[in-house]
Each structure stands twice: as C-alpha cells, then as structure tokens.
C-alpha cells in the first residue's frame, strides 16, 4: 500500500463549480499536510499548509484534514479557468532525523469557461 | 518566489555522458532538495542537503550524486546518464516545514 494515494483524475468541471480534491494516507507518522498547485511546465506552488485536524480557509480554497480517517481534502469554491492545473497533496514525516515530504501523484483539474 | 533558479532549464544529452544540474538560492536556506517528476510517479526525492557538505539520499538516489560546497548552490550530477533518467528535475528549499520549488530542468537522455 502506498503511503499517499491520490486520484489522478482528470477532473473536468464548469466554471463556478465547487471542486473537491482528495488524498488518503496510511502512515500515522505524517504530521503536516500541504496542497500544491502546478501549472503546465512550471514548478509546484505551495497553496495551503495545515498541521491539525479541521479546516483552514484561504479565499476560495479550504483545506480539510481528518487524521482519524487519514484523509485530506482541498475544496475550491467558485472555480475559475485559471484554477486549471494539477493539484498535488503532500505530507511530511521525520525520517533519519530530517523532515521529508511524500507527494501524491497529483490530480489534473480543468475548469471550463 | 523563494529566489530559486535552476540551470540549465532544458538539456538533451546522450546515454553515457555526465550531466550536472545546478540549483541556486538567494536566501541562505539550510535545507535543499532535488526531486524528479515523472508521469505516473509524481514527485520523488533524489537527494537532499541539510547544510554545506551535508547531504543524504532520498528514495531514488541510484545513479545520482550531489554536492553542496556553498550554502546557495546545490548540484545534482548524473555520472553516466541513462534513458531512464529522462525526467523533469526540480530543486526545492525548505523554510520551517514548507518547501518551495524552482522552475525545473527538463532533461532528455537519448
């Protein structure tokens, strides 16, 4: 079983839709949870960062963490064509004395005008 | 923008040749990382550094070496490139627990 699972999609929605992106994980040692957005041929860009169960909101984006179910989500409200990108979840753990990130494979999102 | 640049941005090389990719940061962050990104595999850690001359392996380190002689520069070397090393390579720096990525180097090994 992979440590982090993410549905690769692709996911296609109309403009204005609410988008839900999800990851599950198996390792209880993960302590911090992140979402990255990656536009085509660009580097990943940190969107959201959380460390506890519950919700964190930033504008149209809400990150949700449920540690008891080992499940994280990213919600995008009022989605825009500019949100079209690949979204990567990432989780951090301490290994060998250093903190490392484990990434999901990414979900490709297309928002259609 | 975390002040990370990568060079070259694109490179085509032949199997068996050595290749060095450079990552440069402007903000003196202690931790630096090299990842590769491939379809179906996502981002995978190759090597990382936690200080000058302090480096360690990641999950896919075979065939790669790294060096860090200055805080601002982290070099990734493919001693003898193979076609399986065709990939997009990203450098990252860490501030607390947040990682910020460079623009990437697209490497093709023919």
Main sheet of chain A, how many strands, which sense, barrel? Answer: 6 strands, mixed
Tell me, briefly, the overall form of chain B: globular
**Runs of chain A with pLDDT <50, length 5+?**
none
- Tell me the strand percentage band of chain A: over 45%
Rg calc of chain B:
13 Å
Topology as H/E string of chain A? Answer: EEEEEEEEEEE
Report the sheet-strand fraction of chain B: over 45%
**Total strands of chain A:** 11
Can you describe what's shown?
The complex is a heterodimer of chains A (113) and B (110). Helices cover 0% and strands 59% of the residues of chain A. Chain A contains no helices and 11 strands. In chain A, strand 6 and strand 7 form a beta hairpin. Chain B is mainly β. In chain B, the strands form 2 sheets. In chain B, strands 2, 4, 5, 6, 9, 10 and 11 form a 7-stranded mixed β-sheet that branches. In chain B, strands 1-3-8-7 form a 4-stranded antiparallel β-sheet, with no helix packed on it. The A-B interface holds A 6, 32, 34, 36, 41-46, 49, 51, 88, 90, 92, 96, 98-101, 103-106 and B 31, 40-45, 48, 50, 56, 58, 90, 94, 97-104, 106.
Outline:
Chain A is an all-beta fold. Chain A has strands at residues 4-6, 11-14, 19-25, 32-38, 45-50, 54-58, 61-66, 71-76, 85-95, 98-103, 107-112.
Protein traits:
heterodimer, A: 113 residues, mainly beta, 6-stranded mixed β-sheet, 5-stranded antiparallel β-sheet, 11 strands, 0% helix, globular, B: 110 residues, 7-stranded mixed β-sheet, 4-stranded antiparallel β-sheet
């Amino acid at each position: 079983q992979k440590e982090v699972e993410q549905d690769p999609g692709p996911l296609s929605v109309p403009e204005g839709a609410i988008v839900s992106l999800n990851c599950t994980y198996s390792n209880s040692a993960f302590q911090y949870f992140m979402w990255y957005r990656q536009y085509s041929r660009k580097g990943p860009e940190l969107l959201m960062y959380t460390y506890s169960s519950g919700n964190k909101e930033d504008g149209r984006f809400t990150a949700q963490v449920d540690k008891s179910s080992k499940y994280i989500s990213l919600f995008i409200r009022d989605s825009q064509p500019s949100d079209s990108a690949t979204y990567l979840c990432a989780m951090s753990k301490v290994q060998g004395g250093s903190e490392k990130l484990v990434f999901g494979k990414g979900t490709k999102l297309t928002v259609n005008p | 923008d975390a002040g990370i640049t990568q060079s070259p941005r694109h490179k085509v090389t032949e199997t068996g040749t050595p290749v060095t990719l450079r990552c440069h940061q402007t903000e003196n962050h202690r931790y630096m990382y090299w990842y590769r990104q491939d379809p179906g595999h996502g981002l995978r850690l190759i090597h990382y550094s936690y200080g000058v001359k302090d480096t360690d392996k990641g999950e896919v380190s075979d065939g790669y070496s790294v060096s860090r002689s200055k805080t601002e520069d982290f070099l990734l070397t493919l001693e003898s490139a193979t076609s399986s090393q065709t990939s997009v390579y990203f450098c990252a720096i860490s501030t607390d627990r947040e990682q910020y990525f460079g623009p990437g180097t697209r490497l093709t090994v023919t």
